[in-house]
Amino acid sequence: MNQTQMIPETFLGVGYTRGRAGLPLEAVRVPVRDPAADQVLIRIAASSLNPLEYKLVDLNFMGRTPPVGLGLGLAGVVVAVAMV
Fold it and tell me: What is the Cα 13 distance to its own chain's centre?
């Protein structure tokens, strides 16, 4: 993707919308944030969901607030880089 293409406001993924007991997993629409100074934004082409991730949902690992998209393993293209 080049700089002339728009970055969407949200993305559709697999995750949870409930609190601490986030299961069952479902389709979620999550806001796309601008990357912070030490981050890049990646347009994801493929992502995995492994047992560790949905077990962390049940523990509310990192205290994240729903909706939360899952998928730690991914492949994609960098579309934005934060300028320092």
Answer: 7
What pTM does this model have? Answer: 0.68
Sign for the CA dihedral angle at 65, 37, 54, 63 comes to negative
Tokens 């293209």 belong to 77
Query: Whose CA is closest to 19, among 78, 63, 77?
Result: 63
What is the residue type of 58?
Answer: D
pLDDT, tens digit, 9 for 90 and up, residues 7-54: 889 988 888 887 656 677 889 888 898 899 889 999 989 988 888 887
* Nearest alpha carbon to residue 70 among 11, 7, 17, 16: 16
The answer to whether residues 29 and 12 touch, using CB atoms and an 8 Å cutoff, is yes
Other Cβ atoms closer than 10 A to 15:
23
Measured CA distances, 41 to 19, 21, 55, 63 (Å)? 26, 29, 26, 22
